[in-house]
Amino acid sequence: MLTLKNILSKTACSASAIALLVLATTMCIGKADADENKSTNVYSANLSENPLLAADSTKNRLDQAVKEAEQSGAVEMNQNNTITVPEPMMLPATHRNRIDLSGTYEYLHPHGSYGNWQNITVAFYRRETPDFTWFAQLGGHSRKEGDGLLGTAGAYKDWNEWLYTYSALSAGTNSEYLPKIRVDHDFNIKFGPAKMFVWTIGGTYIQYFDVHRDYIISTGITAYINKWIAEYRIFRNISDPGSKVSYSQLFGLSYGQDGWQWTYGKLSFGKQAYLSTALETRESVNNNSILATVGHRHWLGSDYGVFGEVGYFNLSNAYHRYGMTLGVFKEF
C-alpha cells in the first residue's frame, strides 16, 4: 500500500527525474448541476417522511459534494503548493537553476470528517536560454481518502518583445482528489509604457478518474510597477457531464525584488458548480468558495533562502481549511 512515508522516499529518490514530472497550477475550478426533477421530488418526499433518513442522506450528499469538489479542483485554488507553479520571476538573472523543497500541513473543520492534509513537494527550475525557462515538480499527498503523487512539467517561452507563453502538463495517480491529466496554456501579451502591463488569455483542460471533465477559459491583467505587481483574473469553468457553468475571480498583490524578498497576498472567490453523479439521484452542487493566502520568500544569501505561506479556505455548506507551507530553496 502506498504510504506518505513511501511517497517521501520515492520523491527524494526522484530528484534526478524531476524534470519529467510536476505539480501545476492552478487556478480554480468546479463542478455542478441539477437534473431529473421528477426523481428529485420523489426523493425529497421520502426524506421528509423519515427524519433519520433525511439527516443521514444530507451527510452523505455533503461528503460526496466535498469529494467531487475536491476532485474537480474546486477546493484547491491555492495550488502553487500542489498545482499552480509560480512564475520564474523568482529565478534571478544571475542564476540558471533553482531547487525548491517544501512541506504543507492543512487542518480541516469539521476535523472528524476530513482530518488533516499533508503534502511534500520538490521542484526544479532551469533557465535554458534568456527567453526559455522550463520546470518540473513532483508532489506527495496524504489525506484521509488515501495517498497519491502528482507531477507537472512545463515551460515559459518569450517569443518576442510583446508575447510570451506558459504551457504545462500534469498527471496524478489514481485517487479521488488528483487529476488524471491536466493541460494548461496561457498567452501573455505585453503592452503599455516599458511593457509594464500583461494581458493574459488562458485555457485549461482537466480529466478526472471518473466521468467528470473541466474546460476552463480565463483572462486577466497584470501590472508591474517598480517593485509592485498587481494582478486580476477571471475564470469561466464548464463542467461535464451536464455542461454546468461557474465563475471565479482572483486578485493578487506582490512586493519585492529578486535576490532580496517577495511578499504577496491573494484573494480568490467564486462558485463551485458541478453535477454530482456518484449518488443514486443526481444532484446539483453550486457552493460559494473563498480562499485567502499570504506568502513570503526571503533570500538569506546570494543563492539560497526560505519561503512560507499561510492560507484560509472556506467551501460553503462543507468545511473550513487552515493551511501552512514552509520551504527552502537553493539557486546555482
Task: Give an account of the 3D structure.
The chain has helices spanning 4-13, 37-49, 51-72, 111-114, and strands spanning 97-109, 116-129, 132-143, 146-158, 163-172, 181-191, 197-207, 213-225, 228-240, 244-257, 261-276, 283-299, 304-315, 319-331. The chain has a 14-stranded antiparallel β-barrel. Strand 12 (283-299) and strand 13 form a beta hairpin. It has one domain: Porin. The longest helix is centred in the N-terminal third of the chain and has 22 residues, at 51-72. The protein is globular and about 60 Å long. With 332 residues, it is mostly beta strands. It contains 4 helices and 14 strands. Helix 2 (37-49) packs across helix 3 (51-72).
What labels would you give this structure?
332 residues; mainly beta; Porin; 15% helix; globular
Summarize the structure.
This protein has helices spanning 4-13, 37-49, 51-72, 111-114; strands spanning 97-109, 116-129, 132-143, 146-158, 163-172, 181-191, 197-207, 213-225, 228-240, 244-257, 261-276, 283-299, 304-315, 319-331.
CATH architecture: Beta Barrel
The total of helices stands at 4
Unreliable stretches covering 5 or more consecutive residues: 1-5, 7-89
**Structural class, from secondary structure content?**
mainly beta
Q: Tell me how many strands there are.
A: 14
* Strand composition percent: over 45%
What is the CATH superfamily classification? Answer: monomeric porin ompg
Characterize the largest beta sheet: strand count, sense, and whether it forms a barrel: 14 strands, antiparallel, barrel
What is the average per-residue confidence, as pLDDT, rounded to a whole number? 78
Which overall shape is indicated by the principal axes computed on the Cα atoms?
globular
Q: Remind me, CATH topology? A: Porin
The first-to-last residue Cα distance is: 37 Å
Q: Please bin the fraction of helical residues.
A: 10-25%
